[in-house]
Amino acid sequence: MAKPSNLGSTTKVVDPQELYRVITQASSQNPAEVHASSKRVEELLDYFGTFDGLHEIAATRSVPLPVRKQSIIQFKNKALNHWRSRKLLSEEQRVRIRSRCLTFFDEEDDTIAECNEVIVAKIARQDYPVNWPLLLADIMDVIRTNLEVLCGSPNNDPRSTLSLRRGLALLNSVLKEFSGVKLLAGVNTMVNIIDQLHEVMFDYYSKLSSMISALVPPALSDQRTADNLIVAHFMYKCLVKMALWLWPRLFHPQGGFAKLEPWFLQLFQSSTGQLKILFELRTNLVIALRASGASDRLTLLSIDRLTRHVRVFGKFFRRLQQLKPDKFVQLPTGNEIVFYYWDRVVQATNGPPELIQDAPTAVFPVRFLLQAMVLFKENLSRWTPFRKGGPKTETTLSQEFVEDAVRLLVTRFIPLNLADLQGWMSDPEEWVNLEDKENDQWEYELRPCGERVLMTLSSQYKVYVTPLLETTFKQIIAQPTVDSASVIQKEALYCAIGRCATHLREVIPFSQWLQHNLLAEARETNQYYPIIKRRIAWLIGKWISDMCSPANDPNVWDILTHLLQDRGPGTDSVVRLTAATALQECVDTLDFDIDVFVPYLPTAVTELVRLMGETDTMEAKQRLAKSLNVVIQRAGTRITPHAQMISEGIPQLWTAAGEEWLFKSQLLVVVTSLVSAMKEQTSLNGLIVPLVQDGLSPGVAINLDEDALNLWLAAVRNSSSLGYAGGPGLIDLVPLAVSLLSDNLDLLGKIVSIIESCLFVDAPAVLQSFAQPLMNAFVKALTGQAIMTNQKDILICLQFLTQLAPAALWGQAMHFAGLVSHIVNLLNHDESSPNLLTECIYLLARIALADRQMFLQLVSATAETMDLPEAKIWEAVLDHWWRQFDHMSEPRHRKLAALGIASLVSTGRPEVLDRLPNEIFNLWTDVFFEVKESKSLAENEDASPLTLHWDLDQVPQSYYADSESTVEFDRRKTFLDNDPVRTMQLTNYVAAALQEAERACGGIHIFNQYISKTDPTLLKQLQNELQGE
């Protein structure tokens, strides 16, 4: 065995015998052996030689099949990601593996062969053509040799046919891999591959297609027919891969692809012709098969393969259309083939319904018809004579053609069929769930696809479609609807009107229709009327949400609330669920008028809550909860009388939901909206507190934490107090907030906001019970791994705290938590963020302004804790007070710094007074100048002389912390208006502080010793400011 090259000392070489033994155990039917071997398998995958050993085991036919499968799957999953690793593979081993990959052509097991296809494609992407130059030639040799056997020998050779199939599948896999490469080297390789293959593969397919075109019914039971079909299918897929890669590049003038354009056009035109031949052939064969009743395995296999082959043409055309829709309509025979497809749709609808089935043996398979309708729909926008911009196409549809298409869609594809009705009756909730998903699945179901084709026709040919639908509407609404057939046809027309609402709003009198027809139909007790009632609810929701009529007609709410609550004959749960969705769509519009809706609000809310309790599926419950949430949001404070009823139903729904996190999340959203709409209502605390606690509990928080925090924040911001007489209060959640603040970095930003909001509601109550643990948590977050933004938020929160509660409630806790020590360390650290340091100065200024004696005590206690002289603490604080002053851009912050330092001056501390002549006087004069300038402006405007510059500007929006439309916004605004920074006149405050400092330091003589060092000009300027000159 080859030895690893350039390996570290930890690399081990695999023992082939142990590898075989472990892989054998891993493929065992005994779960104990599989479990025991799994860990060892993982370990061996890091050994040198393991990948080569696995591949050798997979290629050895004498090894038991389960062991071979396990080996090649392990190789596919692990080796391809380490193909270039010299630690795990030598170049000699890579050569052997590449050579061994080409021994699987006659592999009988599909799993092994499919894994080998992936392996070859992934290796080829890295090694072809440099390290694996003969790959393509070797594959083509196998294809050519075995194709000659298939076409030239009268006898069937199963092994040769198998090799041919495997070779084509392998080639298809390689083409698929290289077609996804974006780098230039890969693009060049793909060009080289196409140059080698395009003509020869086209010739091969042409030879086989001529054989297939001559099929007769008796030949379907021949193995040779099934073989020819699957081989032709794989060949054509290879051609499609090359053509699709080439198609968008044909329009790049610099790409050099023009030489391949004739081949592409030849392939496309021959494909359109071949599709027609194959579809007609298949139709005749299936009809003959049905007549004869033949159902042997080979016949059914041949029909299945022929059906799949016909379908691949549609996939080819559809993908060309998606990649270059404007160029697709210009292709020769491009429009012709789309019309051919549409003609097959018309042909299918003219026959008995049983001819259309989702089965390979159907005369008109559903998937083929879907391809036809999608191709037709996408081309419609290119055929309109009214198209804006872009080149005009010569292909346009006549009025007769358009009207016939509309009639066909409305009468044959849009009406509910028997399968729809059976699904409705057997599982109503699931049926509604699937109907709501039609927007995503319309390309895979006939009815929604037909609706989309009608919508496109209505948009592109509205001059034809609108009058036709208008006339049909007037005819249908006047006719009695009593039997199932007339009900289903009317439902289809209502669907068509809803889908084309934006084009019909000018011609259909919606209000009159509501009053004279829909009101009565919504109350009809006919056994077939749930079909129409469900569509009426859907139609109203569609019409209103598409802004075709404003949601201010009482008849809209009359019908929807009736359908929502009716449980008598002629209705069912599908109607009620659809009405709930329609109600949401109508309420959630710009023109919604709450005054018109208020009389219907009690019924709407009651029935939505009731339906949530009645439905079985979580998907239905979730949809109803979304509808309820929208109603609450749009109702605003009008929802208050119904809040108790809504809240009483939540606990049972919450408990029953178990681990249905999406529904529980929606319930939290509902309660959040309810809290936000009610404002200042604390009656919901008994519901909010346990919901938040449960939503943030271990194992649950990973799914619900965001919604639970949103509810918590909304509750606090809209509450007038944290306590609640006779039940749990929001104050009970503070310990949870402290815990999360301390230990959960992911939620830190939202938790700080919640605590800040709690402080705005009742800071003394919070601090009386939780001052120390709260302060400890703040400091832990600040000293931990919190990001800069969160640290800044915490410091801002602490600034609010010092203003919202007396110092006696927070001073001691600050010291014991080590907050000031942490701030001093930040100030002394050279790499601290200037933004963070500035926030620290703001906090210190707030402390000094709130209680200067507490500030002195904190400095003294901190010095003792840090084992430093007090002078060192003062030095750090005062140095940065001056340094960070230049980082303060907002005038309110600069005045805060001036007020804070004035408060410290008033204490008479020598460390502070020493800074008076230079730093402090300069700081004050800077702010005085701003204040003076503002006073001058204010006087010119006849405003109050205390109106300052920062009063003329709005505070940044960030100050309100997204609290707009909550009670907290008013609290913050009042708080801002009463801020000492806004209410105190700086000159008066500074003058008083200087007088106090004079007394505190021992008299005028001592005080003058500090003042005398001041520059005379600066001192004169300061005196003038203080005297108001």
TrEMBL record:
Residues 37-107 form the Importin N-terminal domain. It comes from the Eukaryota. Gene3D superfamilies: Leucine-rich Repeat Variant. GO terms for cellular component: cytosol; nuclear envelope. One of its GO terms (biological process) is protein import into nucleus. Keywords: Nucleus, Transport. It is found in: Nucleus. InterPro entries: ARM-like, ARM-type_fold, Importin-beta_N, TPR_IPO7/11-like. GO terms for molecular function: small GTPase binding. Belongs to the importin beta family. This is Importin N-terminal domain-containing protein. It comes from Suillus luteus UH-Slu-Lm8-n1.
